């Protein structure tokens, strides 16, 4: 019995493509082949497709593809919502059809049948709440309250008017070009929800991520216990060691047990691998958004802070270099009459790098982890004090 290396290679390639597509732009993968794969999947492949369509079918077909892209990426549409429902529905249907017959089992009790239904239902409720709830739309009627609730820091947010809505844009708000509205405490536009993530529904979105992460972990663990129970009940280890003379060790038994499982329980293995990969990806998103909530920062603000810090570092470096150049020119003029230093000494003495003033991120909205989380759970617009706020 040999390990099905072709299936293992297929799983590794699939995992590499999924991770590259979803996480290839993360800083940790910068300059690696994962980033290259991500660039090809998100830009290169589409560019070559457009050129191929234009050469084979003409400009009309190319314009049609561009129109479909505009509808999918630049307008509100339920495509990813339908895709999410299909993923959840098909995955749970396969789980019920192929795995419920093993429940109850040696390690899995019968109440997991009902717990799985509750878990999927709660995930669906959070999906509906996030997708169809108001993210915190800023209108002419409530703009003064939002302006008073969120002060300008005059760093990444300054007082100005929204050129589209023609109303003052509160701090932390942004006009979403897809939804065509200003959203308070704007985080990002989520295509999976077909909705913006803002002040009022960030709590639902984070709960959705956390719950689906736990759901994927739960499904993976249950499937693994089902497989372990089958190995125990069928006495696979005993048969391999007693009748086939296989050495009772992990390295000796693993290939044979793996092939037995792939032959009889390949669906459960594929489901568990699929859910494990999703759990890893969702775990990363959960950790990122938990950090944002604890520091009272949004995704939009994190990008703004990155741009601001990079710009300030370059400006401080330019100022330091200019000051160092001015100082060196002054010292050269004053020391022109002195004896020049030894060439060997000049060779070994290191040139002093100009001291650069560090850039400090001053987030005035960070009020401590407890108050930050409370602001996410109970948005400012849902508090009694919000209705009494007036603009100065």
Can you describe this structure in just a few lines?
The protein is mostly helical. The chain has helices at residues 5-23, 33-57, 59-74, 79-99, 112-132, 143-149, 202-233, 236-242, 250-264, 266-294, 299-334, 343-348, 369-377, 384-387, and strands at residues 160-161, 168-169, 174-176, 181-183, 188-190, 195-197.
Please write out the topology.
Layout: H1 5-23, H2 33-57, H3 59-74, H4 79-99, H5 112-132, H6 143-149, E1 160-161, E2 168-169, E3 174-176, E4 181-183, E5 188-190, E6 195-197, H7 202-233, H8 236-242, H9 250-264, H10 266-294, H11 299-334, H12 343-348, H13 369-377, H14 384-387
Antiparallel strand pairs: 1-2, 3-4, 5-6
Helix pairs in contact: 1-2, 2-3, 5-7, 7-10
């Amino acid at each position: 019995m040999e390990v099905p290396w072709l299936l293992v290679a297929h799983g590794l390639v699939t995992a590499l493509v999924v991770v590259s597509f979803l996480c290839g732009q993360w800083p940790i993968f910068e300059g690696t082949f994962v980033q290259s794969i991500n660039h090809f999947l998100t830009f290169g492949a589409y560019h070559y497709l457009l050129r191929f369509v234009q050469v084979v079918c003409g400009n009309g077909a190319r314009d049609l593809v561009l129109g479909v892209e505009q509808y999918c990426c630049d307008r509100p549409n339920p495509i990813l919502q339908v895709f999410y429902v299909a993923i959840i529905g098909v995955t749970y249907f396969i789980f019920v059809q192929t795995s419920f017959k093993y429940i109850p089992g040696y390690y899995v009790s019968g109440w997991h049948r009902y717990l799985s239904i509750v878990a999927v239902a709660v995930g669906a409720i959070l999906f509906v709440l996030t997708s169809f709830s108001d993210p915190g739309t800023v209108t002419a009627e409530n703009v003064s309250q939002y302006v008073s609730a969120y002060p300008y820091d005059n760093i990444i947010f300054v007082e100005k008017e929204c050129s589209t809505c023609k109303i003052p844009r509160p701090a932390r708000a942004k006009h979403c070009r897809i939804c065509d509205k200003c959203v308070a405490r704007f985080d990002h536009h989520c295509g999976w929800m077909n909705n913006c993530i803002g002040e009022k529904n960030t709590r639902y979105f984070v709960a959705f991520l956390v719950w689906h992460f736990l759901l994927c972990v739960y499904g993976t663990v249950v499937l693994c216990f089902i497989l372990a129970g089958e190995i125990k009940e069928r006495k696979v280890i005993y048969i391999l060691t007693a009748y086939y003379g296989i050495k009772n060790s992990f390295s000796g038994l693993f290939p044979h047990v793996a092939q037995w499982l792939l032959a009889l329980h390949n669906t459960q293995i594929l489901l568990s691998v699929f859910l494990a990969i999703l759990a890893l990806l969702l775990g990363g998103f959960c950790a990122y958004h938990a950090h944002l909530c604890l520091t009272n920062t949004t995704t939009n603000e994190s990008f703004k802070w990155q741009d601001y810090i990079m710009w300030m570092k370059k400006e401080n470096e330019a100022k330091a270099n200019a000051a160092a150049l001015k100082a060196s020119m002054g010292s050269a003029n004053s020391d022109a009459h002195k004896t020049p230093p030894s060439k060997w000494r000049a060779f070994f003495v290191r040139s002093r790098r100009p001291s650069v003033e560090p850039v400090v991120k001053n987030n005035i909205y960070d009020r401590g982890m407890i108050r930050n989380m409370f602001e996410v759970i109970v948005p400012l617009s849902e508090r009694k004090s919000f209705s009494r706020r007036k603009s100065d």
